[in-house]
Amino acid sequence: MSGFSIRNPERRIESNPFDVDAWNLLLREHQLRSKNFVEVEALFQRCLANVLNIDLWKCYIVYVSETKGTIEKYRETMAKTFDFALEKIGMDVLAFSIYQDYIAFLKKVPAIGQYAENQRITAVRRVYQKALATPMHNLDTIWADYCAFEKNINMTLAEKLIAERGKDYQNSRRVEKDLQAMTRGLNRQAVSVPPKGTASESKQVELWKKYIAWEKTNPLGTEEYGQLARRVVYTYEQALLSLGYYPDIWYEAAMFLQEASQTLDEKGDVKLAQALKVECIGLYERAITGLMKESKLLYFAYADFQEEQKKFDAVKEIYNRLLTIEQINPTLTYVQLMRFIRRTEGPNNARLVFKRAREDKRTGYQVFVAAAHMEYNCMKDADVAIRVFKLGLKKYENEPEFGLAYADFLSNMNEDNNTRVVFERILTSSKLPADKQIRIWDRFLDFESCVGDLASILKVEKRRKIAYEEAQKDLGMNHSMLVIDRYKFMDLMPCSGDQLRLIGYDALKGNDTPSTSTSSNPKPVPTRGPQAASAIMGGAGGHADVARYGFPRPDISQMIPFKPRVNCTASFHPVPGGVYPPPPAAAHLMSLLPPPTCFIGPFVNVEALCSVLSQTQLPSLQYDKSENGMIGPMNEADVKKDLYQLLATTSDPSAVVRSSALADLKRKRGDSDEEDEYSHLQSSTIGSIGSRDAYKRRMNKKNE
């Protein structure tokens, strides 16, 4: 065990507040055994309603059972405790023990008189029926107990009740099996900590979203939409226990509550619809006061929800709460607040928000752009919009993005001269560094290319080249790099993508990825087959694609897979930790040969044999074909006959006869006339061999 893991848990928590192991160790060392029931109940009151963890609720039931046994209304308190637990977590797949304990508790309650006995039977039956309609583990046990319970009361009535509840039991049992498969791999005990982006975390997020989507399909087949909504909301709550730092889970849960509320309202269930609205508000409040207290996304979504409910004062309070957080940039919040005030109170009051934003030193230039566009689009006052831009230019003269927004605004208004003035003012300002002027020069050239003449275009292009040389002194410059921007339009380029990379255009623009829109027919990247791995890993699929990447890359299409293996056989090329399989041709040959277990000897020393063969000198005898058909001491006809007999003994003589090497040999000898003499031998021999092979004979008939 490392020194860090055995360090004092308090110190570990100080260095990392999200050290779950340290928290568990600290809790084990400080078990709450002081019997301070007031603080215990305060903790339960604080967390029970928001933390729907099955183990926490079981602990709560045990606590009530052990500490409230001496009070006068103990049985009523326990019954309310069980009912409260089943209302919150009764649909959990692990709720079997709670149902079982509740039923056992009800059965032990003394009943004096027939009326009290009937009340107890009704209460027990109600819990049984609720349990049988819930997909959970150990449902078979509850079903067997329920059947015995009904039979002990009234055998005649039991058959009817058991038949009625049998449908719910079978349906819940079916869904429970599907639920097991759906939740396989889910870590429901994981604690919410800031994500690190690991593969296991991504897998858990994927499994939870898959589980939620499955619950939305209504696997129980219930016709009551309220029950379906409750199950989906409960699944979201379970996911948030482990994924509390994922704002999208919070947002999706809130959106589902809003949609479910609207659906129930349309169906006429106004009470439940209002309850879901209240629950949605509670969800947002839990998020922005807890783990997501700095998530602007949830603040904005919460504000829109309250605006939809016509609660405008609540919306203002939400925005103000966000603006009071010092460590958050308030610019976007001011923009959204200004838009909200414009929608609900008009542009004049929205100007007051803009004034408040200008006084906030944390505000960025974007609020000036938003205010100017609001004046132009909503108030239809171009003069005020221009004054807003001028006011912002005094403060953000060193921000190239603000200058581009101002120039684009004037260009869209067809204020060509004023646009040039703005460009000149920004580019000649001493507050804007040379490296930030690049984008301004690019936009200036694009503007002149659209509205200016050739002389003005060349003038701007010349000045732009000087600016580039000063800003990128370490990059080799040439005129071709810069002239590209004169002729391009949107994603249309005057050169192909390969040519742009060879020129160095992408490096000049600071692009890490090459342009892909310049090729009308881009080469598709294979996703299957032997070239897929090469393409995915960056290989060129058999050739060095220098133009694609700008530098040579190794051709990995010829790489063979490495297989980890403990014991290596002689047929593989062993390396530390595994083997490399033989080449495809050798592997095919090995598949045709008998397995090594079939050979029992004699064994040959391969190294000695190879040494002897390498030292053997073969005679270099050459025989010329004579006029009487003799090749040296051998008759040519005898050689052919021996050759065809040899072919007849091969496993697949037809393949050998059709081989190009044999055809080339015959053509070189120039004895095509003699082929006819032995053609019958080929066919008869091949046919005889094929006739002896029953498998080949059947395959030939099938092909015919």
From TrEMBL:
Domain of life: Eukaryota
Subcellular location(s) of the protein: Nucleus
Keyword Oxidoreductase annotated: no
InterPro entries, per the entry: HAT (IPR003107), Rna14-like (IPR045243), Suf (IPR008847), TPR-like_helical_dom_sf (IPR011990)
One of the GO biological process terms: mRNA 3'-end processing
Suppressor of forked domain: residues covered: 13-499
Biased segments, Basic and acidic residues type: 693-704
Low complexity biased stretches: 513-522
GO cellular component: nucleus
Pfam families xref list: Suf
Identification of the protein by name: Suppressor of forked domain-containing protein
